[in-house]
Amino acid sequence: MRLVFGSLAAQTVRAAVRLRVVELLGDKKRSAVAVAADAGAAPQPMTRLLRALTSLGLLREHEAGSFSVTPAGTLLDPQRPHSLTSLVRMFTEPMMLRAWERLDDSVRTGDIAFDASSGKDFFSHLKELPDLSAEFNAAMSRAARATAAVLPHAFDFGRFRSVTDVGGGDGTVLSGVLREHPTLTGVVYDTEEGLAQAAATLVGQGLTPRCSLVAGDFFRSVPEGSDLYLMKSILHDWTDDQAVAILTHCRRVLPPAGRVLIVEPVLPEVVDTGTDTDGLTYLTDLNMLVNVGGRERTRTDFEDVCRRAGLALTSVTPLTRADPYFLIEATAA
């Protein structure tokens, strides 16, 4: 029953974000009537929403009709640094959910449900809607923060001179690396839409002198000049052939001692319910199928796409404290 009602819980959380429930409650007890008034909502339905959020562990009801925010609920406050509100907005976005309604069609055909339901691919859809594109960038930035915190200490960046973050978005991950390795220089490489917030990130971190922004299309080329090419959550957006194309462009500019570092989940060859008890990685895999046409991959799958691109996979290491991500290192074959 929890599985069947999962989409209802997601919509409840979406409504809480859209009505700014956690922001309006703040850090004290407030009545549902007061929250409703500030949200421009009706008191009785607001009480029902707050009680549903309480049942999901996001709020606490003290006396009847009086609520406060739990630690889990603070994740829905956009003013907090650990907020998940951008992720909530993105993953409950109606266009994404419409694609999920066609999951069975994608399973039958292998086709991308998003393209069929919207008439265009996911990234073209974002390109036409700057506000949604900014929301997507914020969601990806939030998802990258745990990686940005641990990656600089989990890999020997000190042996390299320059790192290009391919599909680096707003620069969150590369900023984390450059902050901890002051001799490194960097390049954030992405589309113009992907880079829209990157300049502000670099300025905020004081990294502008050591990092440049380059707009382009990684299906056509990647910039020359680095000895490390980093990709965080990029290949899983694309089919195997497209992943090979991206990796091939990296291989073409890779110096003899250079490396390609891929940061993505690595699925076990056989499902292990002991390590993925909530199924999130496999649900993400299906999300790739219906919305963008990509996939999560096993080690064997990564070895295959690397081999086809002229690369040799040399190691696969769990990224501690950034589950479910792994560090996948490759060299020129």
Key words describing this protein structure:
about 15% strand, single chain, 3-stranded antiparallel sheet, 15 helices, 8-stranded mixed sheet, alpha/beta, Rossmann fold
Short description:
This protein is an alpha/beta fold. Helix content is about 45%, strand content about 15%.
Please characterize this protein's 3D structure.
This protein is an alpha/beta fold and 333 residues long. The chain folds into 2 domains: 75 residues, Orthogonal Bundle (Arc Repressor Mutant, subunit A); 186 residues, 3-Layer(aba) Sandwich (Rossmann fold). It has 15 helices and 11 strands. Strands 4, 5, 6, 7, 8, 9, 10 and 11 form an 8-stranded mixed β-sheet that branches. Helix 13 links the parallel strand 7 and strand 8. Helix 10 packs parallel to helix 11. The chain is globular and about 70 Å long. The mean pLDDT is 94.
Annotate the secondary structure layout.
Blueprint: H1 6-18, H2 21-25, E1 30-31, H3 32-39, H4 43-55, E2 59-61, E3 66-69, H5 85-91, H6 94-100, H7 103-109, H8 113-118, H9 122-128, H10 130-154, E4 162-166, H11 172-180, E5 185-190, H12 198-205, E6 211-215, E7 228-232, H13 240-253, E8 259-267, H14 280-292, E9 297-298, H15 299-308, E10 311-318, E11 325-332
Parallel strand pairs: 4-5, 4-7, 5-6, 7-8, 8-9
Antiparallel strand pairs: 1-3, 2-3, 8-11, 10-11
